Amino acid sequence: MKLLQHFLPDSQKLRLEHWHFKDSEPHLWAVFTSTQTRAECPACRQSSQRVHSRYQRTLEDLSMAQCRLTLQVKVRKFFCLNPTCLRRIFTERLPAVAAPWARKTLRLVLQLQQFGLALGGAAGSTLVKQLGYVVSGSSL
Ligand SMILES: [Zn+2]
Q1: Can you give the residue ranges of every domain in the chain?
Q2: Helix H or strand E encompassing 130
Q3: 22-31, 51-60, 61-70, 125-134: which is most confident
Q4: Does residue 1 have a pLDDT over 70?
Q5: 31 CA to centre of ligand 1 in angstroms
Q6: How close is the Cα of 91 to the center of ligand 1, in Å?
Q7: CB 17 within 8 Å of CB 31
């Protein structure tokens, strides 16, 4: 389990809780928790420690040794403590891991972009399917 911690996109802000492996695909699911104790409101930049709720993000990550890797990251929503801010609740950001609302990690997106730029949409899509990713030509 310690080995998997070294492959995290951001080992400073994520802690591995557990993982499970599906032999039939093969597919590794790794569950992480954010270790941030506070987060900055994206609208007013004020820091907050007051937690509103928690939820789980599912992010597709780079494959490891021809095994799909999915990160399930437990993140929190915080109350914005600035009374003049229009944003009452916000989700903590993990800028080294994934963009807000993204379903793929930044490093996977970067790799897919490189395939798309080198090969174009249709050829790039064919190659990444062979590598185990599902991306349309128009997305690339
Ligand atoms: Zn705010």
Answers
A1: 2-93, 105-140
A2: helix 121-130
A3: 51-60
A4: no
A5: 29
A6: 11
A7: yes
Look at 2-6, 18-22, 90-94, 99-103 and tell me which has the smallest mean pLDDT.
2-6
Tens digit of pLDDT for each residue in 41-99?
A: 999 999 999 999 999 999 999 988 888 899 999 999 999 999 999 999 999 999 999 99
Q: How far does the centroid of ligand 1 lie from the alpha carbon of residue 79, in Å? A: 8
Gap from CA of 44 to ligand 1 centroid (Å): 4
Dig out the tokens for 3 from the structure. Answer: 């080995």
Q: What separation in Å is there between the alpha carbon of 78 and the centre of ligand 1?
A: 10
What is the enclosing helix (H) or strand (E) of 129? helix 121-130
Q: What separation in Å is there between the alpha carbon of 39 and the centre of ligand 1?
A: 10
> Which residues are placed with Cβ below 5 angstroms of ligand 1, an ion?
41, 43-44, 80, 82, 85, 87
